[in-house]
Every structure is written in C-alpha cells, then in structure tokens.
Amino acid sequence: MTSEAFRDAGRRYREDPSKFSDKERVRMYALFKQATSGDCSVEVPAYVALLKGAGYASWRQLAGVPREEAERCYIELVRSRDPSFAASSPPQRASSETVRLRMSDAVRDMDDAEISAPVAGRSREELVKLVESLRAQVRRLSVGHVVKEGELTRFRETMTGRDWASRWFEVVPGWLRCYRSRKRDLRLEVSLRQVVRVVAEDRGSILRVELKAPTGDDARASSKIAHLRSLRLAAVSDEDRDDWIASISSAVKAASAGDAGDQTPAPKVASELKKMKDRAAKLRPAHRVSRPSLLSTDAAEPQSYAGFVNLIGVIAVVTNLRTFMNEWRLIPLVAALFGDAEEGPPRSLGCARLFSPPWEVMAGGVVLAVAVLSSLVIELQAAGGRIAPHRANAAHVVACASSLVVPTALVATAPARPALHAAWLFAVVVAWMKHVSWAHTNTILRTNRDDDDLDDDEYPRNLTLRDLRRFYAYPTLVYQTSYPRSHRVRKRWLSKRIFELLVVVALMVLIVTQFVAPTVLSVRALDNPAVVLERLFALAIPNIGVWLLVFVAVFELWLSILAEATRFGDRLFYRDWWNASKMDEYWRHWNLPVHNWLLRHVFFPVLDLGLPKPAAMFAVFFVSASLHELLVSGSCHVLNLWVFAAMLAQMPLIALTNFLADKIPSKSRLGNVLFWISFCVIGQPLCIMIYTHQFVAVHAAEDGGTTTFRDDSAPAAAAAADYYYGGGSNVSGPVPLVANTSAFMGTHEL
C-alpha cells in the first residue's frame, strides 16, 4: 500500500515532467515500478521492449531493492526538483544509498543496455539474433534511407471544408510520409504498395498520386486513410514536380519488386504499433504546453490586427449607409411619392409578472451535481470490475443525457426569464460538455487498460473527487489526466483582470439598454422590408460592440481569471479569428475550447465509425447547431429553429468562401470583409430582431393584453434609439439609463 506522500509525488511529477531530464525520467519510471510492482519478472512483447527498453533495463537493475526504499528515493527525487513539495515523511538519505548506487550503475550502463526481450525458452544465439534484428528495425523505422524530402502543398479535406496546406514530405523505401513541418510531426503515412501511378496535372505544378484500396498488413496499418484514393500535391515549380514524380515512381517500382521488403515493419510489430498509435491519437492532449493569451501582455510575439482594420471600414460604411437611408426618406419629394415607411412609434411590452425565486435553477443544479457524481461512481465500479463494460457505458450515456435534458426541461416549464435562463443554460451546456469529455476519456482509458498488458499509472488513480473537482474548475472542456500548470498565482495581475471584467460588463449593459433594446423594440412588425433593413443597419453597430465586448469578457478576461486562479498553464483560448478570410478559419480560431471538444468527442469518433470527413463535419455542425438553438430558444421560450438553420447554413457558406478564396488573390481583404458583413452586419442583428419580436408576440398574451407594445414608452424608446443614430427625434440628449430601461422593458427581463 503506497503512502500519501508517494501518491502526491507522483501527481506532481505528472503535472510537469519537463522539470526532469531524460535520464531522471528513466530513473523515475524504474523507481515507480519497483515501488509499486516489486522486481521486474514479467515478460513483455518485443514491440514494448522497443519503446521502453531503457526503462525496463533500468528497472531490472533494481532487482532486490525493497519497495519502501524505492518509494523513499522516488519522493526525494521529486523533492529535489520541486521545492514547494513537502512530503509527509522526512527524507532518509542513508537508507536509500543502495538504491542510489544501483541507479547510478543503471544510468551509466543505459546506453549499452540491451533491449529487454522475452528470454524464456531461447538460447543465447537466438537472443543475440533477436536483439540485432530489433535494433536494425529501430534504425530503419526512425531514420531509414530517404530517397527524397522537401516541402509540398497538399490539397486536403479538413473538418470544415477544403484547403491547400503546406506540408513536409519524404519518400523512404516502402513509404510516402507527410509531416506537419520540418519538426517531423507525422500526419500521414502511405504504403508505396498502394500507389497505382503518379501523374502530372495540366495546370500548375501539381502532381497526383493515385492509390488503391489497402489490403493485408497495409489495411491494418492504414485504417485511417482507407478512404483515400488520391493525393494532390503542388510543388514550387515544374522541375521540382517532375523530380518528385521520378522519385516516387522509382520507390514504387522498388517496393513492387520486393527491394523494400526488409524496410517494412514485421506484420505483427507494425499492427501492434499502429494499434498503440491509434489509441494515443484518441487521447492526444489538447493542452501540452503553457501558452499565454494572444492579446495578453504576456504574449511574446506581436499579433496582426488587419481584421480589425477591415471591421472599422465596415462600420464606417454601414453607419454612413444608414444615415443616407434615413435622410433619403426625409426628402419631401420622396416622402410625397412613397409615403413614410414608419408605421408609428413603438410601444412597450406590457407584461407585468410577479417575481418568484428561480426554483428551476436550484433544482437543475442539484440534478447536474447528482449526474456528475453518479458517473464517478459508475467509473469506479467499472474500473474495479464490478460492472460489465457495456453496462458502464450505457450508464454513462444515461447520466450524461440527464445532466442536459433535466435542467433544460425545468427551464422550459418555468416562467420566462431570458437573462437568467440564458446564463443558466450556458452554464448547463458547459457542465454537460465537461461531463461528456470526462466519461468518454475515462472509457477509452479503461478500454486501453483492458486490451493491453501495459501498465497505465494514470488510470484508475485519476478517479477521485479531487481530480473531478479540479477539472470542472479548469477553463477547458477536454479532460486529461494532467495539464500544464503555472508555478504561482499572480494576485496583482488577477486583481487587474477582475477590475477589467467589471468595466467590460458595465459597458455591455450600457450598450444593450441604451441602444440595442430600443432599436429592436422600435419596429412593431417585420413585414416592412424598408423598415427592417434600416433597423438592421441601425442595430449592426451596437451589436458589433456588444459582440466584441462579449469576446473580451469571456475569452480574454473570464477564462484567464479562471486559469490564473487554478494555475492552469495553457491559456490559448482563441487564435486570430479577426483576420479570417473564410468561415472555416473563423470557426477553427474563434473558440478553441469548443473546437477541441468537437474534435475529440464528435469528429474523430465519427471517423472511427468508418464514415468520410464530410459526414464527420456534418455531425460537428449538427451538434453545434443543436446546442446554439438550445441556448437561444431555451432562454426565450421560443422554438422556431432559426439559429439551428443558421448554424447548418455555415456548411454551404464555408464551401462558398473556400471557392472565393481560390479565386481571390491571397493578399486581398475581400474575404475578410465578406466575413464581417455576413456575420456581424446581417446574421447576428437579424437573429436578434427575429427572436426578440417572437418573444414579445408569444409572451404578451400571458399578461392578459391583446396588444404587443405600450404607447406610453414610445418617446423613451424612440429617443434612446435616435439619439445615437440621428433618427430625427426632437430629444436634446440621451435618455437616462434607468428611466429608459424601465420604459421599454416594463417589468420584463430582456
């Protein structure tokens, strides 16, 4: 039974392994295995020996060392690298001297240590031959003979459309490999035995590698790319393209003739390695290093703000266009010919409602907590073998569904409180996404542990209430057993961000109450296109202001405050979405926490089912559209699927912007301007206007009235809207905040 100090030391090591050198990591592995499992007497497969040869060799050097001694030495090593760590028991250096001597011998002999391989029933000659073959295999897999390497631009289908991306390619005997960059982060690996031919296309310096369906070992090693039938690659010139065609063709001939037969991995080893790689891809951490926010003062590299410059231009055009439309209607000749487009002053919603405590929020919070804790109990039972895996998975589905459906149903049956319900449903959706990520990730960890004889020290040690509580406090939606952490909490920095958040929220309330709400309520009906268009332009400017303030409040301030308070290291919550020239760039860069969650728990699971990327992309947008519709319709108690349809419409809009991006020069700003106009000038204001008027129409009858607006609020609402936009009101100044709010809102929350 391990001590609390030993478990705490292991947790601190997993939080920041970068504090330890490579040799110290091997030492930590050996000490941990010796302290938890005793002497190394297990036989491991050859492919495991390839990956952990040094670790197993170091572990074998500790044969005979008591577990208590290994545990003490492990704690001392963590203490030497983490001064803030205070173990419950004092260090005992003298008692661990034997371990230190053994470890120094293991580190000194590490480079010459043979790969640990199964020894039962094998002669010395067989073992020597096995070691030599495995070492040769490692050299071939890690280095190999590179026929050609260089940078090519690959045409690819991404999660949100089609694009050309720069990649680093290399041709080795038997394989064509694609890396993200020169850092050799492997993205794609194609067996040359799948290549049918390599041809040059007519236009540009483009070559096409035509593939056939993989069979046999290639099918097992290439299950993720089984749907690929061709690769379109663009070289820098025609000469470079011809050189690539010649290199790939010669390597294909060599592979077909069997010259590269000894270069390919053994079938068993290759399939096992591919299986391990696929499992690792499913659990690939979204947070790997500590990174500052892009707009933070801690950012090391300057950012481009060209997108905001384009936004300023869009605002100037919309403001002047709206002014022109307003003045054009005031020309006497035009007024005489066409009449006044306005049908009269707005009236306020008469919907007095007695205040009642938000019991639906309280009950929903209890249900949410019970559902999350039940998942922890379910996973503990499944990890201990007391529940069958399929029953545990079904129970997780029920618990996750309950954490979203029950709170939403309680809100739907309660009186409408748009502001309160919008905030509460937002919190419910965030908690549900965390719940799904926790259950899904632990299910994968449990499955990997059952399918493999490798010891995974992270599971089930992570199934604690403390670990679950920390995950729900972290500003992330993707569960990992460990995260990058900062060293301390900067209290002065945290105080500044809290003050900035209060200022931003106050500005949001001011703009909404003084400009957004009066503008929306100044239109009694949506059947007059001229009035709707003019009000749409009038609403666009304050809507952009509120939207940018929401972005700053949530992604730059609130999430950074949570990260600082919890010492969460990875604070890159967004990328430069303001420079997006295509809609798919915006959706990838705008909200990284949700983007990472959709990749991990929707996109890749759909691909694992064997479906193509377009189907996975549709699943992503379907889930996103459903959640957006829940947030808007649930808070307004109006279900008309406008937001759902608008989100699904992003898919053809992505295809359109990708098509335009291919036609527009790369340095043109037209794509970015189209993004701002379609999203901020037309899309969001139109949705706000539609849902507000439907909310007014649906809930006016609840107050016993037949009219939607009240005449007594017309001067206040019209003055607040026209003061800023120059709409012809006879008001000499802005309407006071409190008086204006009570006038057009009555006692109803908006």
Automatic annotation (TrEMBL):
Pathway: Lipid metabolism
Spans through the membrane: 361-382, 394-413, 419-439, 498-517, 537-559, 602-627, 639-661, 673-691
Domain PH: 145-253
InterPro entries: Acyl-CoA-binding_protein (IPR000582), Acyl-CoA-binding_sf (IPR035984), FERM/acyl-CoA-bd_prot_sf (IPR014352), MBOAT_fam (IPR004299), Oat_ACAT_DAG_ARE (IPR014371), PH-like_dom_sf (IPR011993), PH_domain (IPR001849)
Domain ACB residues, every copy: 2-87
Keywords from the named record: Acyltransferase, Endoplasmic reticulum, Membrane, Transferase, Transmembrane, Transmembrane helix
Subcellular location: Endoplasmic reticulum membrane
Main location: endoplasmic reticulum
Top-rank taxon, per record: Eukaryota
EC supergroup of this enzyme: transferase
Family stated for the protein in its record: Belongs to the membrane-bound acyltransferase family. Sterol o-acyltransferase subfamily.
Record protein name field: diacylglycerol O-acyltransferase
Organism listed in the record: Chrysophaeum taylorii
